Amino acid sequence: MRGVILAGGFGTRLRPFTLRLNKGMAPIYTPNGAIPQLLFPLKTLTSSGIDDILIVTSREHCGHIVELLGDGTEYNCTLTYKIQEMDRPVTGIAQALGLAKNFVGDNKFAVILGDNFYEENFRSKFRIFEEGSYRSSIFLKEVHDPERFGVASFSSINSNGVVKTAKVEKITEKPNPPKSNYAVTGLYLYTPHVFHILKDLKPSKRNELEITDINNFYVNDKSMQAMILDGFWGDMGLSESAKRVSDFIWKRDS
Predict the structure, then answer these.
(1) Distance in angstroms (rounded) separating the CA atoms of residues 50 and 108
(2) Nearest one of 43, 47, 39 to 22, comparing CA atoms
(3) Which residues partner with 238 through β-bridges?
(4) Which of 15, 78, 97, 98 is most buried, by the most CB atoms less than 10 A from its CB?
């Protein structure tokens, strides 16, 4: 499998820091010092067995990320970079995903958002997807504020002793009120088939190509597997959520 880190966007929720730097450079304070948050999704991929990784970022901030990560040698991987032009009429997570088509080729791949932190190692879960017949996998986590995320409606949770899965019926973006407390986290597994869907995807009301629309295609196609996370997960896109990640790491590593 190959890996894709989406680290573009405007980072408006972390301004004024992101007026000068990509939010992936925002520090997460730990017992081992201040760590740029982009290193956490990178570690998620490399520790789970993926060592060929594309980073999609914006033109304005790509220099800082390249300076930090280089060619990936220091992190035991090979890094490729792609620019997401943010002045296009249509942007969004799914639009950034489309930039990975040539990099992915015929390989199954993992996509992770640059502001997501995961406690878990995904080596076994990635292998399940790689060896299986599903076209997509998502990872759900029960949270106290599901209205901030895409939320999965499902009928049941099953466990085979290796992984917990949910039979998802629909994913709704930022619902109020939400139909469950299970958020769709920022890690997705796809086959190259996803690029066929992207060609016909329509922009949302906020003029973005939405990752939720892609995932709902696979829900309706019955070719998605939804896995339930047991370990800690946090997004680092808000100051308060970044602090929760920092607090978790302090408690774990101190």
Answers:
(1) 11
(2) 39
(3) none
(4) 97
Neighbours of 92 (CB within 10 A): 22
Summarize pLDDT for 74-107 with one digit per residue, the tens.
999 999 999 988 667 577 899 999 999 999 999 9
Domain boundaries, the chain: 2-253
What H or E segment, with its residue span, contains residue 242? helix 239-253
* Residue 169 to residue 159: CA distance in whole angstroms: 18
CB 165 within 8 A of CB 226: yes
Neighbours of 203 (CB within 10 A): 16
* CATH architecture under which domain 2-253 falls: Alpha-Beta Complex (3.90)
Say which residue the tokens 């502001």 belong to: 115
State the DSSP H helix or E strand holding residue 248, giving kind and residue range, or none if neither. helix 239-253
Q: What whole-number distance in Å separates Cα of residue 27 and Cα of residue 78?
A: 23
Q: Which of 84, 111, 78 is nearest to 4 (CA)?
A: 111
- Under a CB-based contact definition with an 8 Å cutoff, are residues 188 and 138 in contact? yes
| Tokens of residue 159, six digits | 């466990």
pLDDT at residue 17 is higher than 50: no
Band of pLDDT at residue 14, cut at 50, 70 and 90: very low
Instruction: Determine contact, residues 236/148, Cβ cutoff 8 Å.
Output: no
How far is Cα 134 from Cα 37, in angstroms, rounded to an integer? 30
In this structure, what token pair is assigned to residue 12?
């408006």
User: Cα–Cα distance between 183 and 173 in angstroms, integer?
Assistant: 10
Residue 76 φ/ψ region, left for φ over 0, alpha for ψ in the -120 to 50 degree band, beta for the rest: left
Q: What is the pTM of this model?
A: 0.93
